[in-house]
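INFO batch 0412 | record 1 of 1 | parsing
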Amino acid sequence: MASEQYKKLVDDLCKLVNMPVQPSLYQRVDLEIDKVFFSLVEAKAATSKKSATAPAAAPKADSGTSQDGMVAVFCDFGPLPRHQRQAAMQRLLELNLSLQGEELPVMSMNHENGHVLLSRRLPLAGMAALDLLNKMKDHAGQAKEWRDGGCFLKGDGKPAVHKSEGARRQFLRFANAD
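INFO prediction complete | emitting tokens
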């Protein structure tokens, strides 16, 4: 059962995106923002059984180390590039190293469809729906950049260097370090 804090966040988010509130959304919210798919779930204490209501963008797997009082955000970046897959995977691992810390995103792969996922857990306490929506819009921009091939690699396999704004600076800072 969803907490009142999570229900309020979902209700407020639905109002912002003009989506009707339905009880099923308290289990999982699936949204498309700028042609990028997101799933939101309230993070619960870890369990050993698989959830029948796993996020659409996220792999159906154990909940791992989730915590109460958090919202888990999953952003579907799309498939790995057809060319330079090894270099792209290496960049994803390097990105994970640079993004270590609380509340920061982690890059992973959905084993069910082979898509790259950005996932993160954010505290519900003090989380406004508009702040969450803005974070998702930032991640949608990052996903689009990934899909266009400009976020990680240029054609020659070297890291791409892009100017970025706001949250993208943190996400792309590894590309500028070379």
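INFO post-check: The chain is about 30% helix and 20% strand.
INFO record closed
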